[in-house]
Structure formats: C-alpha cells, structure tokens
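Researcher: Next sequence.
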Amino acid sequence: MRLHQKSVQVFADYHQFYLWDKGMSSLPPVDYTNEDVERRIKTGPYVVVVHPERNMDVPVRIEIHDSEPPFDPHSWDHIAEASLHVPTGQLQVHECTGGPVADFQIEKGWYRVRSFHGGFGTIATVGTDGADFYRVVLWPAPFADVKVIKQYPKQPN
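Model: Next structure:
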C-alpha cells in the first residue's frame, strides 16, 4: 500500500539529486567509478544519489510504500535499486546545488530505493531539452547491494 506520494521538479545539477536522512550528517559520495555512472545510482552513508540523464529541471515522483510494489519494466528506459538507512525517519529529497524539495516522516530503518528513468528518447542531442521523467519508490527492506534491473545502453551526457 502506498503511504506517501509527492511530485516535484528537481534541478538535477551535475546529473544528480539526493534522498537522505536529514537528521544525520548527509554528505553525498564523491568517489565515483564508471560503473556508478552507468548504473545511474550511488550510495553513501544515509544517502542515495539518483542520476537523471539531464542536468536540468526534471520531474520526479516520490512514492513511499509499506512493501515492495509491482512494476512494469517495459515502461521505463532504466531501472536501478539501492539501499538507504533512515535511522531518524526524516527522509528528505535534496537537490545537488540547491536545497530540499520534499520532506517525509517515515518509519525508522532500512529502505529499498528503486529509481525509474523514462523518456530518454525525447532528449535532444545537446542534452538540455527533453521530456525525460523519473519515479523513485521506497519501501522497508533489509540492506542489499546496488542492483540494475534494466540498463539503458547510453552513457549519461
């Protein structure tokens, strides 16, 4: 069952935005590998970084569920998962160079974060214009490694 949902516009400067526990010292990771870039998701202590295709304003729908929701992988260009520890229950969606765009009070603990990336075929060659869109779904789950469910073949711009 979906517990919370919010749609936001996120300025994805440097092709990233964060989900983190705002009650902890949330610093994004800086040690990137080529694999991290290809996965379009990265973790650090109390933070998951989602990497949109464009570094512009992008629409993002955040959903928090009480258990893993079903999904159709054919509707998306790229899908990846990571684990997020939220020990204070203060989940925040935060822009890379901006501030917070959404706050949620959730149960404390570990969550699985599944990021869905769509509309890549609408992005102009220069990478600034497009109708790409994103959905981030969280649910309580034990820690697990980063996993790519569906890999988009093109590297981010």
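Model: The mean pLDDT is 93. The chain has one helix and eleven strands.
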